[in-house]
Amino acid sequence: QLSCLVKMVTLHGIPKDLDSYPKDLLLFLSPSDYAATGSCVQYFADVGKANLDVLQRDSSQRKQLLLEALACLKIPGTQVNEENAEILGRLVCDLGGEYIRSSGGNLLKQLSQCGSFLPDQEEAIRSVISSGNTTFGPPVTWSAFTLDELSGLIPVFDHSILQKIPK
């Protein structure tokens, strides 16, 4: 339905008020389509707020979105800073374990919004959390607020992490 809606909306070119349309619609446009109305950074910031699950996780379309986002943000390696993590939004859900490890705690807030993780991602999340080198600090210092911020990651925590969190 969204794919069809995009065709209708863009029939006479890209509308200038594209930002007023549902974010999920942007998943079916390319950054070059959007360039007429804004920057690629703005496009991916909006895409990062969309429901990525509209596209299958391993679909070529979803993989292409991530590749184009990394290129747009000029992320050369696997380290994503906090500002770029904020722009990527839910797109971080598709980053592999190497990105999660390299970026330290920069991705945790966005990762906590993801519906599910691949084993490689889960392992990387546990590694980053266990290191304690995040803005959240080591699990022994966490409060209820910290757990609330990371609530989407709790299912990934193993026994060694859980036992360190204060009661």
Give short descriptive properties of this protein:
10 helices, mainly alpha, 167 residues, single chain, 0% strand, 2 domains
Question: Could you explain the architecture of this structure?
Answer:
The structure is a single chain. This protein is mainly alpha-helical and 167 residues long. It has two domains: 1-74, no CATH class; 81-166, no CATH class. It has helices spanning 2-9, 31-34, 40-47, 60-72, 82-88, 97-102, 108-111, 119-131, 144-149, 159-162. The longest helix has 13 residues, at 60-72. The protein is elongated, with a radius of gyration of 18 Å. The model has no long low-confidence stretch (mean pLDDT 86). Belongs to the mesothelin family. Keywords: Cell adhesion, Glycoprotein, Membrane, Signal. This is MSLN protein. InterPro entries: Mesothelin (IPR010335), Stereocilin-rel (IPR026664). Pfam families: Mesothelin (PF06060).
